[in-house]
């Protein structure tokens, strides 16, 4: 369903309402659980799926939903993120009041603080938000991978005359303590909201799952302004939407839960409403490797809901040599532009742009980020190789867990993360 086909039951013109909506993408977090991958980049700027950045998914959802007024709030080591957005997202037309603008942390308020929480990040830019005069404010995290039609969420927000709508998804109860957890009535009204509770409340009738916030909110703009100004004056507040603003509204305003399955963009063969927080090394590896399956959970070939990004002019991928002792081959893998597989074997792996795999190498179940080069006879298994790494000749990763843990970073699930700094320390 296109934005032009969406209306509420009352016949409200949703495309017009979307044009009166401002999206705020919170993209300032480091993502420390990704370890060395975020030493020099904010989590939303981390490469994903061969040619994209993580933030491309939230931004593409906005464009495909019909929201073309977008502000991206940055803070931690934002240079590569800012550069990516400037290069890849400059196609909107200002004369039509379309934009993607960058709002770096500038210590704009009286206390001259960096962003102290998600709500404070918006508060510190409140004058800019007001200048855009939206009717609704859509608040998004810039570090999740999913495809969602925000227009359907807005339609439900309007139809139910809500003050705030929170997008939610069912998660295993064992993992629910990492999220905001809510309980709702039969009409979808939120009755209780607890941020990262030690003992999360399961969904009624289910003992194994909880209803978790996705960090996606729609606010009526005037209410949001008032809430942020009051919250800024509270010394005890953590100035966070999930910890402070949302729980305080429950029972005072109409706060509803929007089920992700009602707006998730899925093709006919999809088996699940796909949403991933790729915030750990294991989760990042799993989400990328899943794309190498014959039918992955995330469909990147959907022409009706494309993922936009900065399109670099890379040459095609190249596979060379075809003799018995060395043959350039890739099986069940994604190989991006600019890659050269020279007399090597790549199996069940994802190679980002400009990767070179030299002769007699073996790469299995691994993620190689942009600009990696593997020296001859190296073997890489169940690993993530960081951008720009130069792997020495004959290096073996993923076969000796004790040695891997000593030289690199190895997760409990047996995924080895390799960075150039770690490689440099091998010779010290």
TrEMBL record:
Gene3D superfamilies from the UniProt entry: Hexapeptide repeat proteins (2.160.10.10), Spore Coat Polysaccharide Biosynthesis Protein SpsA, Chain A (3.90.550.10)
Recorded catalytic activity of this chain's protein: alpha-D-glucose 1-phosphate + ATP + H(+) = ADP-alpha-D-glucose + diphosphate
Site (Could play a key role in the communication between the regulatory and the substrate sites): 75, 114
Residues the entry annotates as binding alpha-D-glucose 1-phosphate: 115, 180, 195-196, 213
Pfam families per UniProt: Hexapep_GlmU, NTP_transferase
InterPro entries: ADP-Glc_PPase, ADP_Glu_pyroP_CS, GlgC_bac, GlmU/GlgC-like_hexapep, NTP_transferase_dom, Nucleotide-diphossugar_trans, Trimer_LpxA-like_sf
Domain of life: Bacteria
Residue intervals of the Nucleotidyl transferase domain: 23-291
CDD domains recorded: ADP_Glucose_PP (cd02508), LbH_G1P_AT_C (cd04651)
GO molecular function term, any single one: ATP binding
EC number: 2.7.7.27
Annotated ranges, domain Glucose-1-phosphate adenylyltransferase/Bifunctional protein GlmU-like C-terminal hexapeptide: 315-418
Pathway(s) served: Glycan biosynthesis; glycogen biosynthesis
SUPFAM superfamilies in the cross-refs: Nucleotide-diphospho-sugar transferases, Trimeric LpxA-like enzymes
Keywords per UniProt: ATP-binding, Carbohydrate metabolism, Glycogen biosynthesis, Glycogen metabolism, Nucleotide-binding, Nucleotidyltransferase, Transferase
Any GO BP annotation: glycogen biosynthetic process
Family as reported in the entry's similarity comment: Belongs to the bacterial/plant glucose-1-phosphate adenylyltransferase family.
Function: Involved in the biosynthesis of ADP-glucose, a building block required for the elongation reactions to produce glycogen. Catalyzes the reaction between ATP and alpha-D-glucose 1-phosphate (G1P) to produce pyrophosphate and ADP-Glc.
Subunit details: Homotetramer.
UniProt xrefs under PANTHER family: GLUCOSE-1-PHOSPHATE ADENYLYLTRANSFERASE, GLUCOSE-1-PHOSPHATE ADENYLYLTRANSFERASE-RELATED
Record's protein name: Glucose-1-phosphate adenylyltransferase
Gene: glgC
């Amino acid at each position: 369903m296109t934005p032009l086909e969406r209306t509420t039951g009352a016949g409200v013109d949703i495309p017009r309402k979307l044009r009166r909506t401002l999206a705020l993408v919170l993209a300032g977090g480091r993502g420390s659980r990704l370890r060395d991958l975020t030493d020099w980049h904010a989590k939303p700027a981390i490469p994903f799926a061969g040619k994209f950045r993580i933030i491309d998914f939230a931004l593409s959802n906005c464009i495909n939903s019909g929201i073309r007024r977008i502000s991206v709030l940055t803070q931690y080591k934002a240079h590569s993120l800012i550069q990516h957005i400037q290069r890849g997202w400059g196609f909107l037309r200002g004369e039509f009041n379309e934009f993607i603008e960058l709002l770096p942390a500038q210590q704009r308020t009286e206390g001259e603080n960096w962003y102290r929480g998600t709500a404070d990040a918006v508060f510190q830019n409140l004058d800019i938000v007001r200048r855009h005069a939206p009717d609704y404010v859509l608040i998004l995290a810039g570090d999740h991978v999913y495809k969602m039609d925000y227009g359907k969420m807005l339609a439900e927000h309007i139809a139910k005359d809500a003050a705030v709508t929170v997008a939610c998804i069912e998660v295993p109860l064992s993992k629910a303590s990492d999220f905001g957890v809510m309980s709702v009535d039969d009409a979808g009204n939120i009755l209780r909201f607890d941020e990262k509770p030690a003992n999360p409340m399961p969904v009624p009738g289910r003992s194994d799952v909880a209803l978790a916030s996705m960090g996606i909110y729609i606010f009526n703009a005037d209410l949001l302004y008032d809430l942020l100004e009051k919250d800024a004056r509270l010394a005890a507040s953590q100035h966070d939407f999930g910890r402070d603003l949302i729980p305080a509204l429950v029972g005072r305003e109409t706060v509803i839960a929007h089920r992700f399955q009602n707006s998730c963009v899925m093709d006919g063969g999809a088996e699940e409403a796909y949403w991933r927080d790729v915030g750990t090394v294991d989760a990042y590896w799993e989400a990328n490797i899943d794309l190498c399956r014959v039918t992955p959970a995330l469909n990147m070939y959907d022409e009706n809901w494309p993922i936009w990004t900065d399109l670099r002019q890379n040459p095609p991928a190249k596979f060379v040599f075809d003799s018995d002792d060395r043959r350039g081959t890739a099986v069940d893998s994604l190989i991006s532009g600019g890659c050269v597989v020279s007399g090597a074997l790549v199996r069940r792996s994802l190679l980002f742009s400009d990767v070179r795999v030299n002769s007699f190498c073996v790469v299995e179940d691994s993620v190689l980020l942009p600009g990696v080069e593997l020296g001859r006879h190296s073997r890489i298994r169940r690993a993530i190789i960081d951008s720009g790494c130069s792997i020495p000749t004959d290096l073996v990763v993923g076969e000796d867990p004790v040695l891997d843990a000593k030289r690199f970073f190895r997760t409990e699930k047996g995924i080895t993360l390799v960075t150039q700094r770690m490689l440099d320390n091998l010779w010290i």
